[in-house]
## 1
Amino acid sequence: MILIVDDRPENILPLKKILELHSFSVDSAESGEEALKKVLKTNYAVIILDVQMPGMDGFEVANAIAGFSKARDTSIIFLSAVNTEKKFITKGYTSGGVDYLTKPVDPDILVLKVKTLHRLYKQQQELKETHTSLQKEIEVRKQAQEEIAGRMQELQSVLASLPQMAFTIAPDGRIEYVNEHWFQYSVDSTTFPQTHADDDVCPEWENYLKNGIEFTREIRLKELTTGDYRYHLLRILPIKKQGVPVRWVGTFTDIHPQKLAADLLEQKVEARTKELLIKNLELERSNHELQQFTWVVSHDLKEPLRKIQILNDLIKEKYLTGNVEATSYLDRSINSSARMSTLINDLLAYSQLSTPALFQPTDLNSLLQEILADFEDVISRSKAVITVDPLPVLDTIPGRIRQVFQNLISNALKFSKKETAPVIHIRAELIEEKEVDSKPSSAGRFCRIVVSDNGIGFDEKFMDRIFVIFQRLTDRASYEGTGIGLAIAKKNMDKHNGLITARSRVNEGSQFILILPVHQVNE
């Protein structure tokens, strides 16, 4: 803004109009006192000041303005129609004016001078703002440097207290600081410790330094006092600011005892593994021999047993007709031979469960129809009622899952109540989890199959015994059996990665529950 100071309004008006035509904002004052009040409140770029004024003349006003820090950059142009002598012009310059014009004034010259001085004022203000901004930035940077220095001092204090070798690295890869443990492996603070010839990591580290990535390696360092190489874990972490590494912090952790222990343990594990492999081969060979022995023994036992049964039948038919007592003794012998034959068959089946077999999709409906056909005579004689709900197709080992259902149905028919026809019901549903009480789910990964009967049942406190080989809950005189059937079922369910359990009460029947995966993976 431009301030025109003149005690005569007729002199102010033409100057104001001329300057306003050149897009200047113009203010005016009609006395020196009024001018000083306005200067205190408003910033002016140029003041056009009349010399001859009543009260304070122009020189006095200029001297007063020169004392205002607010008007330090304001340029003053003196205008005078009377005081045109050299001494007055000199006084105008010494009192703070930058120009001295005499009236009448050439308007164009005045406008050019005002423009120049106005431009200088703007440049000075911009320079001031720039200077202020630079001062603020310097202060901010100074504070930042002080803060960084403080943090660096804290970091160095922490690193000095570590039991490990610790150091910091500048962004250019230069080592900045090392703690006292460094000098056990290096002669000075700028030389990296000597590593084993096979553990040179410098080329690799340079790549991590460029990309700002954490670097971790196991290396061997040469100890200065002994000359021995010791294993260390090297870790160098970047400290980033706005995603850019401003410093790196590294540590060497002595892992020599752990490394030696790990190597020793690895050697022991390797030796133990070899021993286990040898033992495993011996076990496999023994198992194979045992299977062969079981097969041969069962075959050799079955052959004379078959002859005993045939001869007993011949003696009974030819020589003991009418001899009730002898026939009774012979029937006991025949029944004992039959039980022996069943026991041999069950033992042979149990011994063969350890042989590997492949899973394949199995239609349980067809499989159960075949099993029920095998039991047709027993079902007819006992007048049993067996109902089977639709069953899914599962991945099973058909021969072994057949044994499971055969044993469960056989037991349900065998352990029925006297004078009561057996009633057996088989149902299935898909479930979510491999749990007996899991919720049904149409997309379940497991299948729950329940085989229920109305037989004699058992007390559930004996649950842990019924799946153990040769364990019986009934006496041999009342119910036949070898005590192997449910043990075979349990082992077969284990082979299927499944579960088998039971729920029962005495004289209230039993429920045998099978949990099988829908899909299996052949090893």
## 2
Amino acid sequence: MEVVALYVGVAFVAGVLASFVKLPPLVGFLAAGFALGAVHAPEMPGLAVVAEIGVALLLFTIGLKLDVRTLVRPEVWLTSATHMVVTVVLTAGALALAGLVGVALVSGQSLGTLALVGLALSFSSTVFVVKVLEDRSDATSLYGRVAIGILVVQDLVAVVFLAVAEGEPPSPWAVALLLLIPGRRVLHALWDRVGHGELQALFGVAVALVPGFFLFELLGLRGDLGALVMGALLASHPQAGEMSRSLMTFKDLMLVAFFLEIGLHGTPQGQHLAMAAGLLLLLPVQVAVFAVVLWLLRLRRRTSFLSGLVLGNYSEFGIIVVAVGAEAGLLGEDWVVVVSLAVAASFAISAMVNRRGVELATRLTGLLPARDPSRLHPDDRLVDVGDADVLVLGLGRVGSATCAKLRDEYGLRAIGVEHDVARVVAARDEGFDVVRADATDLEFWARVKRAGHVRLAVLAMPFHNANLIALSRLQDAGFEGHVAAIARYDDDAAELRRHGAHAVYHLYGAAGAELADRAAEVLSSGR
């Protein structure tokens, strides 16, 4: 128990310190792992198992939001393939050049070994990227969906490599997993009977780990791939979003173990640190490759750079690839330490970059030529809200109710703005006027300004950071109307007011006041 307390305490302190310097807590967790490894702390029992569960649940929740059809789109598979080839070639070339000038770690290494390091660094971190997208409430935006699609393709490539490198092909019985496709109806029916609350969350964990992780591992496939597949099979269920939210806190706690474990891969020496620092110089090139390829595939410059910036990091799969390669004798053990350091440092760098990713992507757009709007990708064309009186940003339960009341009781032309495709379709089916767009997009707000009629913007997105970014974008575009927003906590409400919101609706506080009014009405009526 003392070891568990040590790990939890160090992780908490490191996470708090990271937050104090405006970095995501996960950077602190990584630092905590390296600190524990450096002092040769005793191994925490079950840490690896908890980390595996965290990654499995993460991929399961990705699957719950995944539209498999996106994987066959050129902006996903072609971008993934191009980026992977370019990264392998550039990394192998750079390392070969370093060997020629006498860098000991790469001197005399075969081209195949250097290419394997390049392959390991061609993957972006699923764990990190999804965390960034969730923090921004952007997992279902266009750039978020493109990024997740690319991550899934990369993960599939990694799974194939691991199967080949380990010399253990999947069991012939693995073809029986195709029965899961029609079998999802049974899972959907069972889900309908489970209901809500903790039983629904437990159902999600059970599906992710039993027919997902355990069954796939049993048949010679990656267990985390199985968790992703099970999530995708359940994605069409009406309660998929609710389950994803119910698993969020549990999943995040499990992932702390994952980030701690990355730092425990070995004690770095000077040559390891120097080589890892050199590999970090390739990150801007990776961002540029993603952005240029996506722009060539007719995505807007802003969308292309947002995708590139969020994918601009190395992956935990890279550590697994070099570890398996080392076990198979394809490269030396030193590379496991080097790649672990590069992965951890890339998380810290990417976290700092993506703190202002929206603003940075907007500034970088000038590096690529503008396109004729009519030639843009159909999902990435700008929209105009016309003569709307009110824009409601985010059409969840709060946003939909707000939109309906402003329209029906106040006679205002209220238009919803939502980037989640499923919510857009559902809202239109219910009779709402909806435009599919990203409220954090400065170019979208410029179109709103040109429309000239909007008098009120309502920030009803479920994540505080998304509402703050939208408020900033709105102000940057010169919006002169009034702004109302929702907040869950007192400090969130205060921050929105401080940044210029004219009215803030405190969800919990206002709900309590409303409940008191209803209770008093019942009491006075004598019913």
## 3
Amino acid sequence: MSLATPTTLPSAEAAEGRRHFGQFSLRRRVLLSQMPLTLSVALIVVAVAVFHPHIMTDSPYFLGGVGGVALLTVLAGVAPWDRFPPVVYWVIPLLDFVAIAPIWASARHGLDGMVMLSAFPVFWLAWSGIYPVIGVVLAFVGSAAVTWWPYLPGTPTFAEGLLEYDLHRPVVVPFIMLALAVAASVLTRSMDRQRRDLGAALESFETQNRLLQAVVETSDVGILVVDGDGHDVLMNQAQRRTHFIGLPPGREDGAEHELLLFEADGVTPIPAEERPVTQALQGKDYRGRIIAIGTDGAQQHLSVSASSMHDQEGTFDGTVVVFQNVTDLMDAIQTRERFVAEVSHEFRTPLTSIIGYLDVALEEDLDPLVRKFLTTSQRNAERLLGLVTSLLDTAANSSKVTVQEVNLARLVRNSAESVAVQATKAGLSLQADLPERMDAKADPVKMGQVVDNLLSNAIKYTPAGGSITVSLRQLEGVGGVDGSGEWAELVVRDTGFGMTEAEREKLFTNFYRTEHVRKAAIPGTGLGLAITQGFVRAHGGEILVASEKDVGSTFTVRIPLCGPDA
């Protein structure tokens, strides 16, 4: 039964007492508080009956005290304490002092330690938490009354012929009881404060837990938490829907190894030991792994990430796996690539034909004005063809390279010689620092385009009077996954416009052009460097850029001499 009754206590201390007994009904708590005294008195009755039976016959007050304790115990169990303010149940410990007095006075000569019976109501009054000061005072007064009762003239158990010092014998007992009452009261209040703090912490934790649960369940991202033994701890609604998509036909549930999981191509099955949750349970962390789940029209693409958890000793304690549905994004990328490839192909065929016929026409003896018009048309057509070719290269799979033995030094030298005239016309100084020979396993067409793109950009974005330097050298133990092997390093440095840090971060994005270049109306598509990066990565290499605004830029390309597989 709850303590939330219409009756209220007149103070905060009384309210604290109500909270102190709030875990159970008051009737049960009062009965439990009375039972230690009752059991102790029952033990005393047995001891008296065995060792000093005359006490029961010679001292009727002993049985009266025992009967009083029994009556109070019954009252504690049957009275409707929940209907009264908690302070009312103090009547039980206060009447316990009255019942204990004749028991102690009658049996004290036969059994030692009888005065300790008063400790039970003392603890009860101090422990209740209701009006602590009053409770301690009543505990002291009650224990003093019990202790001195046999020594007071006129009491039924008063012994004649007591010496004067006999009255001082029990003087310490009430003060010991007072100390016990104070200690119990202090301990109780400390426990109450701890209970309040713990209650507030639990309430805060429950609030945060409800908030987290709401966020997790309303998230469109699938979330799976697995403990160190591989048991699911949490799976939100989004992940349950995804899990259902991967179940074989006719199945209502299944483990990960039974799900229809495929690589990003949607066709190649993923082996059981390479599946996302299995690898996560091995303590592996990963980000953005693309997989496909389900088959036919219901197949979805997911970006999976996993982060392991560890306890204070660093032992693996589970993992969190996040599944983000990227089906729409994958469809959009594939649609874009198909569109660019188809449009680029459809444009390139007629443009090639136009440029061919313009070449033939310009070989004829033409009027100067007509030749000027045709030359302008040819230049713009070639520019448009270059744009279409860049678009086609972007849409193509740049990760495929045709590797063969290539003299990189000759390839770079040929590219530098090809742009030398263009650099001279732009008023630029072009210098090359190249070895006589450097053999490598590479795709000569794509690596040639890498060098051409870097040199063309350097010339295009360097004002007259500037300089461009291209160098090639062999490095040992640079780059790569393990930082070993022989590498070729190509460096193209210019004194051009340069870039800010924010511009460098977007430099390899398709169609991106810096603000200065756009304002200067310098022609270009913003695809060259994106294509260049794809070709370099296809060779197992990397491309780096260092640039400072109005100072210049340095592009560094490193590829393994032994080919992409190395």
